[in-house]
Amino acid sequence: MAGMLDRIKQFARSPQGRRAVDQARRAAADPRKRAQAQRLLGKLRGRH
């Protein structure tokens, strides 16, 4: 499990990882995207 976390940390520090984190932060700041994500999570949890 520690190896997996190390790989995730390494990816987050890479330029591609930084772009992915930045894109996720921008999507989370958008109210429409946030609502869309909440609906998706609700469906995955079995709440319709």
Structure explained in plain terms:
It is a single chain. By secondary structure, the protein is an all-alpha fold. It has a domain of about 30 residues. About 90% of the residues lie in helices and about 0% in strands. It has three helices and no strands. Helix 1 packs across helix 2. The longest helix has 15 residues. It is flat. It starts with a helix and ends with a helix. The model has no long low-confidence stretch (mean pLDDT about 90).
Secondary structure blueprint with pairings:
Elements: H1 2-13, H2 15-29, H3 31-45
Concise account of the structure shown:
The protein is 88% helix and 0% strand. It is mainly α.
Strand content: under 5%
Number of strands: 0
The coarse silhouette is flat
Alpha-beta content class: mainly alpha
Estimated radius of gyration: 14 Å
The secondary-structure element order is HHH
- Helicity level, as a percent range? over 70%
Please work out how many helical segments DSSP would assign: 3
Overall pLDDT level? 90
Low-confidence stretches: none
Straight-line N-to-C gap: 33 Å
Main sheet?
A: none
List keywords for this structure.
48 residues; mainly alpha; 3 helices; flat
